[in-house]
Structure formats: C-alpha cells, structure tokens
Amino acid sequence: MPPMPQFGQPGLLNARNLIAGGIAVAVVVVAWLGLRSMFAEAPPPPPPPPEPVVEAAPEAEAPPEPEEPEEVEPPWPFVLVAAEEIFAGDLLTPDLVEWRMWRHEINLDNALERNADILDRVLGAAVKLPIKANTPIYRDRIVRPGFPGYITAALAPGHRAVPVQVDGATASAGIVHPGDTVDLTLVYAQGAGGSQTLSALGPVAQVIVSNVRVLAIGSNVLRMRTSGMDGAMQSPPPEPPSGNIYTLEVTPRDADRIALGATTGQLRVNLRPTTSLPEDLDHRSLVGIEEVMRPPSLPPDPQVEAAQVRIIRGPGRSDTVLVAVEEEAPSS
C-alpha cells in the first residue's frame, strides 16, 4: 500500500490548487454570466395580445328605390270630327266628317266614338248648332231624321217650314222626293164683272213661289242623298213617298204668299231641274186662259163699247185687257 501523502507535501498542494482554481474559474464564469445578463439590453416586450375582433353586425340593406314606371301612352279614343266648318241646317255627309284620334280631354258620353255602325246612323243628321273645323261632333249638336226637332234643325237660317196640300195628280205621281226643289203655282178664277176678256171669264195661273226645297212629303222627311254611281250601286232606290202634304222651306214672305194662295185657289207643285238657267230662277208672269184657248166670238152689242186698259202688275210686267163700257141712255 503506498504511503499517504502528508500535509504540506508538494503533490497534495497541487491538487488542492487545481480544485480551488476550478472553483474560482466557475465562480468567475457564473459572475460574468450574471453581470452579462444584468447589463445586457432588455429583450423587447412581448407583443400585446391581439384585440378581439368583433364582427360588426351586417348593415340592413336599404330597400331598393322603386323604378319609375315607363310612360305608357293612354289609349286615346277615335272620335268623329268635323273635317271643315259645318253650319246650322247642314246635313252630315261623308265629306264633312272624319275619324281622328283625339289626344285631348273629351266627354265620351257626348262624343261619337268609333264603332261598327255609328257612321251609318249619323250620316244625314241635321246640324242644330255650328261646328268648327277639327273639333269633335257632339250628340247634342245634331238630330237624326225622324226624331223630334229634325225639320227645325234642317231649316236654313231665316226660313220657315210651311205645309202645303197639293193636287192628287202630283201626289200620286211620286216623282217629287224630299230634297228636291220645286215651284209652286196658284190656279185661281179671276172675277171680271162684265169684262169681255177671257182672263175675266176663266181661271189664271201664276207661280207664287219658286226654287224652294221640299223638306218632307207626308211622314217622309229629308235625308242625305248619296250621289254618283257608287251610291246608286250601294243600295236600292228609295220607295216613292206617299202623301199630298208637302212641307216646303220658304222665306217668311213666301210663307205669306202660300197662306194667301191656299185660300184663293188650288196650288200645284212643279219639279225643277238640278241646275236652272238664270232666266228660269224667278218666272212669275201671269198666264191667262187666252194662252190656252182661243177667245169666243161674241156678237157685237151696239150699246157696249170696249176700252183697252193696261194693268201694271210689277216691274216689267203688265197686261192689256178689254173692259166693257156701257153707253148711258139718253135722258128724255
């Protein structure tokens, strides 16, 4: 067994020195590490925890603005309109009216709105009040044939409707229709009181009213006429009117002549042509029986003398007649 080293021996001192040196080194290292940690820069602070994200409640969507509706053109009505100015007393004819879309305010209860048969029922109606061009034709401004007030509406301004009883031959012939123009002849007996002329012995005839329109014959009133070949082919001809009462459109002066003539003699109707010559418009000369038959041969009376007398009946009209002049008997 080797001997134990004694205290103070060089080998034992070296070992102790090594241990102490190691401890010292460890202490130095630890101290150095501690000092280093003390003097070293502080580490950056940890980042703050993230704020909790609060999800915002979804905003309520605003209601969509209503879209402006497209302007739709209203269904404008088609109404009957005057194609030109129509006067009171005129009869509605196809050339006076037309259908037109009316884009203005209108009373459809009074206007004539287009349908299948309205035009056929309106044509021929008489206009009671004037209608301006390009304006609607209202129901209260016209009256249809056969309805009360038709003759009144069909009268021309300033005229009268006068019924006249005509002879049976004219009535039965059926050649006169409402709307025709006629002359009215008065046949009457002329009293003479001793005159030897045929005018004094027989009847005379004279036109007292000329170129007047027939408004009605009996119950057949004036209606619109369709002229031309097209109108003639569209419908059969009307039946001849019956009746011997003719309603004529005359002036107030002619109405007085007719009233006086009806109490004096017999009235005859003469149909006039559509167009007349200027000299035929007012033919009112007196026609005596001497233009129909030759005067009779009368025995001369020595006590009776004839004197010529000229009768002036108006401007440019005069007659020359013979008037018997009896000689006065000589006084005893």
Report what the structure shows:
This protein is α+β, with helices and mostly antiparallel strands and 332 residues long. Among the domains are: 75-153, Type Iii Antifreeze Protein Isoform Hplc 12, CATH 3.90.1210; 155-226 and 240-296, no CATH class. Helix content is 21%, strand content 24%. It is built from seven helices and 13 strands. It has helices at residues 10-39, 118-122, 150-154, 168-173, 198-201, 228-234, 252-264, and strands at residues 78-82, 97-101, 126-127, 142-143, 160-165, 181-189, 203-217, 220-221, 245-250, 266-271, 287-288, 304-314, 317-326. Strands 5, 6, 7, 8, 9, 10 and 11 form a seven-stranded antiparallel sheet that branches. It has a two-stranded antiparallel ribbon with strand order 1-2. Residues 192-199 and 226-234 have low confidence and may be disordered.
Quick structural summary:
This protein is α+β, with helices and mostly antiparallel strands. It has seven helices and 13 strands.
